[in-house]
Amino acid sequence: MTFRTTVLKTVVAAILALSATASAQAADTIKLGFAKCAHCLPMALTPGLAKGVEIEAINFNSGNDVLTALVSKSIDVAQVTYLHYITALDKGFDVVAVSGQVNGGSEIVTAKGIDLKADDWDGLKALIAARKEKGEPLRVAASRGNAQDIHMRGALLKHGINVNKDVQFINIPNPSDHAAALQRGEVDVICTVEPFASQIRQTGVGKHFALPYDQAAGNLTNLIVTRSDVIKEHPQAVEATVGSVVAMVDKLKSDQAAWVDVINKYTGMDKAVAAEALKNASPDYAMHKDSTLAIAAMMRDLKYISHDVSAEAEKNLDYRFLEAVTKKPKTDLGY
Q1: pLDDT in tens, 279-293
Q2: 220-230: string of b/e by CB count within 10 Å (b at 16+)?
């Protein structure tokens, strides 16, 4: 009996090992793209948290690059922003939102030569008027198409400043170039993203002016999106990928050391800068429907998009994967 039991245990172990190997080989591989910013970079942690899916995490310079890769089918899942989501729908692209990720990360900073106190919007308006009168418009920059651009435009508009008429807007596509632009005196004001904002403040290249969250978008920033063909062909892999995002968000809430390490790894920035950046970041896997629709309306008012995409924006918020992973109804997930 002892011999038979031993043989039986050996056979069972071998079968289980073969089954595990077969399952691993059969697991779908998802190519996941993410941008280079403090609240985007934790997406690099998802492969190690994934269960039931193989995730290949790919880093891009900006959210615009990530969205381009998604719609061109170079990747399967993308970490972008609510702004990218609305812009993509406006252009008729096939994008479906499946999870939130991290919000916040935007900051308006001024060059050293700009004498403004924090949140002094009246002072900023007076400076803009004075520069216009001299024929030297204030030079305001952001990365066109990123969340910081829409945050800034919405905040300025709320304070009576039109980015298209009152200032000279300068597009600096790669946020990692923002500090250098300020240092060279090419721009006066920038709405940039963490950790570059913290780097600018800590190195003395610029100083804090405002957090641009007093507008329709609030502090909503990041969104996880995919395409309908990926959902149709690989529903379990999409659910497992959302599961890894939820696990990552939960991890960030309790383990900032891992967050700091991944920022340091991908940007080379000092860990003190990375830690400072996290003060302006809020992990959140919910997808906020009402705010999404408010963002769509604001983007149309700002002529960022050409038509009303509110219906598509609501329809393409797909909560079923978050519901399956978290065991919560969508009413508890931002719907």
Answers
A1: 999 999 999 999 999
A2: bbbbbbbbeeb
